[in-house]
Amino acid sequence: MICWRRLRDWNDAGVWQQLHEVLLGKLRATGQLDMSRAVIDGSHIRALKGGPEPVRARSIVASLARNTTSSPTRAASPSPRA
User: Fold this and answer.
1) Is 81 left (phi over 0), alpha (psi -120 to 50) or beta?
2) Which of 18, 27, 42, 80 could bridge to 33 as Cys pair (CB 3.0-4.6 Å)?
3) pLDDT grade for 30, boundaries at 50, 70 and 90
4) Contact yes or no for 24/18 (Cβ under 8 A)
């Protein structure tokens, strides 16, 4: 529990962001940061303004399909043999 609290507190205090910035600064200063292979991914960042509202999935509970493996239908007649 102590570890969890410390991680939470460090996150809230911005320690991880500062650590990331310091590391990037040191890598840049020594020429060890190769941005030609960097990828920007915005899939984890919420659009605060102008982003589309997420579409709610429609429920299918009210319209369940019939179970075709055990439906009460008449047995098929045998096909005529040629």
Assistant:
1) beta
2) 27
3) very high
4) no
Phi, psi of 22 (to 5 degrees): -65, -45
Crossing angle, helix 2-13 and helix 15-29, to 10 degrees? 60
Identity of residue 28: R
The three-point CA angle 50-55-59 to 5° equals: 165
**What is the signed CA dihedral for 20, 22, 24, 25, rounded to 10 degrees?**
160
Mean pLDDT taken over the chain: 77
CB 33 within 8 A of CB 27: yes
Helix ranges (DSSP H) in the chain: 2-13, 15-29
Question: Averaged over 15-32, what is the pLDDT?
Answer: 93
